[in-house]
Amino acid sequence: MNPILTVESVTAGYGRVTVLHDISLEAGRFGNVGLFGPNGHGKTTLLRAISGLLKPKSGRILFDGQDVAGLSARAIVGTGLIHVPQGNRLFPDLSIADCMALGAYSSRARPHEAENREKVIKLFPKLAERWRQRVRTLSGGERQMVSIGTALMSHPRLLILDEPTLGLAPKIKDELCASVMDISRGGVPLIVVEQDIEFLLELTQQLYLVNHGAVATEIKPGESLDHGEIMSMYFGH
Amino acid sequence: MSALAEILFGGLFQGSLYAMMAVGLALVWTTIGVFNFSHGVFMMLGAYVAWQLVELGLPAAVAFPVAVVVMAGVGWILQASVVRPLIGRPNIVLVVVITTLAAGSLIENGALTIWGPRSKQIPALIDGNATIGGVGVSLHQIAIIVITPLILAALWMFLNRTRLGLALRAVAQNEDASHLVGLNVTALYGLAFAIAASLAGLAGIFMGGYRFMSPVMGSDPLLKALIVVVFGGISSISGPIFAAYLIGFFEAACSYYFGLYWTPALLFGVLILTLMVRPEGIFASRSRGLA
Asked: Searching chain A, which residue's CA lies closest to the CA of residue B187?
């Protein structure tokens, strides 16, 4: 299988600070991709560069053969590359219904609005109960469901999740992990940043350790690794 | 009876004008997070464009809507030239105060150069007078009192019942997330300015129909609109609307009982009191967002 997303020697940062140093990776060749690594080493910056929130200083980002580096976030959403940012801040004073309508804003997603809404409700029945409620009144787990639901409304061809389980209670987290597995089984390839390595090992087929703004280690399918090895990657030898 | 009628009428009338102005300020603040100090100039320019069109021979029924549309364009251009290039800077709020003040000053003096200092007047919406509750009022003012709530209701419907309005409210709350659902954030910023400018222009047309126009006619309404948004809270558009009418009634009552001389001092007293007791405004929640 060809990779759906290829990041080629991307350098990016904020102002004079360079966060990503010539980073390269591929996604979609073996299935879902997991990114892990210490905080502050460029995972979120990489995702922001991929989704167009941040313009890379150099390098190419190929999505399904098309170079999307430097395109506007709006144009990238139009290609079906959808990014769920970290921290479920979302739109605090909009209702769930409003968020779903916004998710289907792009002309690519609009024709599939009803069908995608069904999918979201099936995946997160809890949201249907609170359909008219403002996002700020929801729990952390529910807000994360709204974030992911909004992204599904955008009719993704590739879904990027940035720490979907951050700050959630263990029980809620398990439910959410199960839902993310469901999305994957539904045929949408995923790129997931996650601190919970167990979850990543279960969900993804290929892992990248991002360290100091570059890929420190790639773990391909078939290459097993145990908990101890990952810990030593995190914390050094 | 006639005292009450006079205050009620004066309050409704002034409140209508303040509401039209304040809503535009609030719309720009909630979506872009900047304060537009050229808002008063939009009002003036709307009136002068309407006057010019009438002078060219267009009937008022054509000239006024055209002037409002022209003002939408002016708002868009102003946003693109003195606000958009600064978006993303850390000190944007302060910088935009300066750039919009400067742009306002340029436009004001431009108007002075083009149209001269002589006072002008544009036709009233409806000619004639009526007596209600013992108070003589012009039909023009009655028309303003009736039309303004309709326009504000239409704006509310647009923001709350259409997908484009939803997008404007979304941009107000989270810019990054708006990008990630594919909203054209730049265009929405332009739209917010365009709507604000056309509402201000319409307020100017209303005002030019019963009072003489001058290039500085926008500065006093801007000041009043500032009091309104501080009083009512700038983080929504419904807050400033209610506040505009309250301030209108308060002003009418003050000038009836204490005279015009004391009215500004009392208004600023209310402003200071609001800032001390409830600095986010009396109708505001603590977050930013249109509704």
From this structure: A74
Q: What is the mean pLDDT of chain A?
A: 90
Contacts of B173 in chain A (CB under 8 A): 91-94
Cα separations (Å) of B227 from B100, B108, B267, B289, B291?
18, 22, 8, 20, 20
Residue B156 lies in a domain: yes
Give dist(CA B46, CA B66) in Å, integer.
10
CA A198 to each of CA A31, A34, A37, A87, A226: distance values in angstroms, whole numbers, following the listed order = 17, 11, 14, 20, 10
DSSP-assigned letters across all residues of chain A: ---SEEEEEEEEEETTEEEEEEEEEEESSSS-EEEE--TTSSHHHHHHHHHTSS--SEEEEEETTEE-TT--HHHHHHHTEEEE-TT----TTSBHHHHHHHHT-STTTGGGHHHHHHHHHHH-HHHHHTTTSBGGGS-HHHHHHHHHHHHHHT--SEEEEE-TTTT--HHHHHHHHHHHHHHHHTT--EEEE-S-HHHHHHH-SEEEEEETTEEEEEE-TT----HHHHHHHHH--
Q: Give the number of other CB atoms < 10 A from CB of residue B62.
A: 11
Counting every residue written for chain A, the total comes to 237
The predicted-structure confidence for B141-199, as pLDDT tens digits, reads as follows 999 999 999 999 999 999 999 999 999 999 888 888 999 999 999 999 999 999 999 99
Containing B27, the helix (H) or strand (E) segment is helix B2-32
Does residue B174 lie within any of the structural domains?
yes
Domain boundaries, chain A: 5-235
- Residues A121-162: pLDDT tens digits? 999 999 999 999 999 999 999 999 999 999 999 999 999 999
Residue of B nearest to A74 (CA): B182
- B81 burial class (0-12, 13-18, 19+ CB within 10 angstroms)? exposed
Quick check: A89 and B174 CB within 8 A?
yes
Instruction: Tell me if B145 is assigned to some domain.
Output: yes
Within 10 angstroms of residue A224's Cβ, the number of other Cβ atoms is 8
Chain A contact residues (CB < 8 Å to B): 51-53, 72-74, 77-78, 82-85, 89-94, 98, 101-103, 105-106, 109, 136, 150-151, 154
Domain count of the fold of chain B: 1
Between CA B208 and CA B71 the distance in angstroms is 15
Q: Does B167 touch chain A (CB under 8 A)?
A: yes
Residue B131 resides in a domain = yes
Contacts of A98 in chain B (CB under 8 A): 166, 169-170
User: Cβ of B165 under 8 Å from any chain A Cβ?
Assistant: no
**Candidates 3.20.170.30, 3.30.70.260, 3.30.230.10, 3.40.50.300; CATH matching A5-235:** 3.40.50.300
The C-alpha angle with vertex B163 and arms to B92 and A145, in degrees rounded to 5, equals 85
